[in-house]
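Chapter summary example.
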Amino acid sequence: MNNRMDRHRQHKRGRWIALGVVIACLLGIFYGLNTIYRSVSSSLSDSYTKIHEKGGRPADAIIRKGQPISILLMGTDTGALDRTDKGRTDTMMLITVSKTKGIHLVSIPRDTMIAIPGLESTFPQKINSVYTFTNVSDTMSTISKYLNVPVDYFALVNMGGLEKLVDQIGGITVKSPLSFTFSTDTSHETGKNLYQFYKGKTTFRYAKDGVHFKTYHKMNGKAALAFTRMRYEDPRGDYGRTERQRLVIAQLVKQAKNPALLLNKTFMSSISKNLRTNLTTKDMLSLATEYYNPKKKVKAISVNETSLWYEGISFQVMPRLEQQRVTNELRSDLSLTHATTGPVLAGNPDKFTIPQAVSQVLYANTSSNSQAATSN
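The structure predicted for these 376 residues follows.
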């Protein structure tokens, strides 16, 4: 195994998909459209890939009791643009679903530095490489250990779903937070299939040949993918890209309120080919019929990390105080008692050495006593 797999330059093609596709496949979570959902459940049962990875709790029993659950949403950078390899989970979102508190989302930055449990000799790694090195089960376990919260279910989707989803709902209108030019061929400002977005405007320009531009008022799937992929020209880096992802997600949710656009057998069969999950159709129906609360909105919980270059690689480091704050939020959402957050950088601290520069970020604004108290 190459113990520096993630040292190579990240593939610059599409970086996120998970939530948009899962909105289609798990739409009942948001809108409780159980009647229509039942009409396509047989199609779903036959077409999406079910695997039997389990979290740390008897989640099916938890759903039967109506208690809060968690779902790890992972989007791989494969399945479109000619990518067919296993890929990395460049989108990772932990979603909590509660009858009383609604739906909360925690986006975990793809460049978050960790030591993969059981593979600490490969430290440092990025959290999006856990799946590449291991499997779905170990990825669920790593997130669970890192934040000290149970991960009950997962949904793993690839890039092949976003274009279909946006096109199926007839496109979306999004106001860009900044001006930028992006080629889906080169991932830079020049090349063919060139898009130009403008700050404060919903209109954008596109040139297939990179020269002759036309103006458009609504994004199709390819345009939405380009809008969310750009990273290197954004002065806010991953945080800016995350904002653009949220803008697209908000429009997807808004458009998806029309069930006729999505909940039909042809589309569900097509989109579900891009999905792997351990949620059964029965689980989905239970979430749709029992957990839906129209008065509870979807809430995004931000994660504040610090950028750090280490051995020529750009990482995001989550300070221990921030790690504890996120744990507190998630455990509260899941109606669990307060507990200390998970291990430093997720791995066994006896099996790897934390560089001083990283340690300074981890324990910023904490005393030596609090450092010792939270380092176990």
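To summarize the output: The first strand starts at residue 49 and ends at 50.
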